[in-house]
Amino acid sequence: MKIAIMGSGSMGSLFGGFLAKSGVDVTLIDKKTITDAIKKNGLEITGISGDHHIKAKATHNPSDVGIVDLVLIIVKAYDTEQAVKDAVPLIDKNTWVMCLQNGLGNEEIAAYIIGKEKIIRGITTNGAMLHKPGKVIHSGTGETIIGRCYEPNTLEVDNIAQMITKSGLPTSVTQNISGIVWGKALVNAGINPFGALTGLRNGELLEVPEIVVGMKELVMEGMEVAYKLGIHLPFDPVEKTFDVARETAQTKNSMLQDIEKGKRTEIDYINGAISKYGEKLRVPTPMNDLITALVKGLEKRTAKNSRSR
User: What does the pLDDT look like over 25-36, one tens digit per residue?
Assistant: First the structure.
């Protein structure tokens, strides 16, 4: 199978490295400065899965790659539209496109551009941190779950899951990928913005009773929106939110890391998305509305401070 990965950040490099190491023909696609570093030095993966130095193909120009069997979209949610548009030269009627991302609505963006027929959705609970281009720390093992959003799964989806599993990243197939995606998004909605706003690690959030109440309210609002959409949630998102916060007690969540780096967060695709769906469905989401506004204000301040350094 020939694969192209749009995005060579922490997860793109992790999946690209593992797939390349297992013998899959994979090319990472990103900005020229990033892909030049990967072409020169390869991919270096360290951490919980051991130390690996992998020769990998990379380019900034998708047209150099040709048609592939699978495109993995592994970029920040706000870059999804551009990544899918850039991937068009890689795609024909036999190409599958998998959005392996956090947040809500990524598959809708991809489907609008290239159609619903070949869209696969996925999430992963692997942890990874990018040290610099091509160098990633595998900080936590987890499961990857994939499935089709708009059609029943097929043998090709099973084969993709088996290929990723064979590379060393356990992957399963579900017929309820929408529920899985929403469930994870609700957990992120409860944890991430409070971490970003306070600077507290996940476990520290649970030490503040007022934050615990707020976390629950954020998630419960999102649950009401999901139910109105007809989403079947496979677990209790409130209970899962607190479980995840305890299990990752020492972790600075990704939204907090983005704020600390003066980068844009994915708030529009987590709490902000809950608010937008709620508005369309006439489901009140006052807590998510407020938390989205606060994080966007914080984004503006930290970005301004970052530019002034």
Answer: 999 999 999 999
